[in-house]
Amino acid sequence: MLVKLSEAAETVASTDEDIRGYHVKDRNGEDLGTVDDLLIDPDARKVRFLVIASGGFLGIGKDKSFLPVDAITGIDDDEVRIDQTREHVAGAPAYDPDLVYDNTYYGDVYGYYGFGPFWGYGYSYPPYPYYR
Predict the structure, then answer these.
(1) Which of 2, 60, 73, 126 holds its CA 20 to 30 A away from the CA of 44?
(2) Taking the chain (132 residues) in consecutive chunks of 10 residues, what is each chunk's mean pLDDT?
(3) 50: in domain
């Protein structure tokens, strides 16, 4: 079961590696929002998804979506770059707080982005910080 880092008894090993609050840019450099939280696998001690918040005013009415860490192509300063387009991310399976703990939902998100799920045969965790 995955949990939000903000709700877990875990922390990021180094504050330099905490990307919450970073801007997320698509492969064309367009802004998608900010990293609102990280979904972690407490057993494996790995981040599995970014929770991206976009829209809203003063934190009200923000839309949220999940993005597998596998989509990250680079991280620097205050920016996370991904290999997807803004339009593709907008069409992802809708965030539903009631489904946050459902492997079927996670599988749908992985499949939508073209990645195999972390529990699948042959899965290899992305080699941070050496993203594609």
Answers:
(1) 73
(2) 82 76 95 92 90 69 84 91 93 76 85 94 79 50
(3) yes
Residue 49 corresponds to which amino acid? F
- Buried/exposed code over 26-59 (b: 16+ C-beta within 10 A; e: otherwise): beeeeebbbbbbbbbbeeeeebbbbbbbbeeeee
> Can you give the pTM of this predicted structure?
0.86
**What CATH number is attached to the domain comprising 104?**
2.30.30.240
41 in a structural domain: yes
What pLDDT, on the 0 to 100 scale, is given for residue 100? 62
- Residue 25 belongs to some domain of the structure: yes
Structural domain count of the chain: 1
3-state SS record for 28-79: CCCEEEEEEEEEEECCCCEEEEEEEEECCECCECCEEEEEEHHHEEEEECCE
- Predicted confidence at residue 113, as pLDDT, reads 96
DSSP designation for 81: E
Residue with tokens 């680079």: 74
80 in a structural domain:
yes
